[in-house]
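Lecture 7 notes: from sequence to structure.
We start with the chain below.
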Amino acid sequence: MIVAFFALLFAMAPVQTPATGAGAIEGTVCETQTCRPISGARVVVSVIGSAAVRRTAVTDIGGGFRFLQLPPGRYGLRLEADDYTAADILPVITVTDGALQTVKIEMLAQGTISGRAYDVNGEPLAGARVDAMAFRTQGHYQMLMPVASADTDDRGEYRIPSLEPYEYYIRISPASQTVKDSYPATWYPNVTDPAGATHIDVTRGREVSGIDTRLPSHGVKVRGRIMRPEKDRRPAVLTLLPRKPSIFVMPAIDANTMDETSDDFELRGVAPGSYYLYAITAGMTEHGGEWVRTPIEVGDKEVDDVTITLIPAGSIKGRVTTAHDASDAQNLDYSRLTLNAESVELVPGVPRDGFPIRVAANAEFQVRRLSERKLYLRDQILQDTWFISSVRFDGNEALTGGFSTTPGKESVLEVVISNAGGTLTGIVKDARNKPVPAGRIVLLPDRSLRTNPFLIRTGVAIEGGMFAIEVIPPGEYTAVAFPDRDEFTPAFLRDMKEMERYEPLGQPVHIGPRETTRLDLTVVE
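Predicted structure tokens for the same chain:
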């Protein structure tokens, strides 16, 4: 049962008088569209800011409830109702001497997903966790994350109530101690790769039943040993994560595919695929977790003799310099610059937007204890009119190709900045060639630069459809204009793959150094 906290929809004037020196509250709970009564809802009334008065009632068949003999004061309500959520948040109710306050509480019906889970032999799977997963924005990408869950009973049945209308994916994780065998996490209908999962449309007041999943296999075991430097007794937690997932899924603690018992390890129930096996030696640091990782391939046979050698995380030292076309470089205060690095990989820990690299007054910077993963410098625009024009890592191009530290090694990152950027101006129009009241603009960089997903530029059109995007690194772009609608969120507009779908509807544009280019755009339909 999901607990919905809310105040009153509205309070009417007193209509009857209870005993002298006390007040009362009565009301009804109903569904918002038809006002169909909701029976069995648990209503709790309490004095705001105090636990001195706290009472409970359960709504009757007509959705009604009543609280009598309430001392004067300001009261709030709390409600528990399966498959419903609050329709609104409104003021608390004031009880006065001898007065009865009547209230009407409206709730929105939610959706439900139910079904059964079966093991590889077709027998009911009891004690497994079932997650309803939905896409959520994390930084610059979409990730499937659990929003509600339930456990299967002894018949393998589950029911996940109180779901907002949305598209969901069902994941079965038989990792509970009540499950004797080991299985990989399985997605509805019967796949271990979320890319092959089928989504379920949930609407208000509807139960989607028959979402049954049969685990396709037991998976395989991965065995090996952790090798440590002498006197290194740091605890290490092992976990497997997909190396190049087609869909990002928030990493979950899975009893089958994690191990923290000894230097000899065994991971069970592993599905076929390409993985990194992470040995995590420290929790969250300034730059994320600390680990070493080993690539492994898993097929239909057990994997033995995997060796993980614990090596300290790598580090970076670097310097910022100005490009030959920069002007007024002698007055640049390097200490005001911050580089932002972000990974596009699925790595252990809570998803985050990256981390800052602060530059010192002498233009140098250093990053210690940085674990191996592919990184890009996220924000090409640094401050005022300065932007990153090139990046080299250990002598190799890294603005578009990215960079990654090597365990036990100090690498060199060279960042060149310039202030010779260009400007794009224009008017965004609709299909009738009239200026839009508001709009959104995306600048897709040349295709040779798109391996760095963070080089997309965005802007907004204001009154009269006018826009201006400044400090644009010189080069070739495609400009696409979007109407000011909710589905075109900032995260959506920064998604390179999504934007490439709209590229044929855009216009190519050349941005020159220190030049202003005019380009009128028509919104996509």
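Points to note: Confidence is low (pLDDT under 50) at residues 1-19. The two ends are 42 Å apart (CA to CA).
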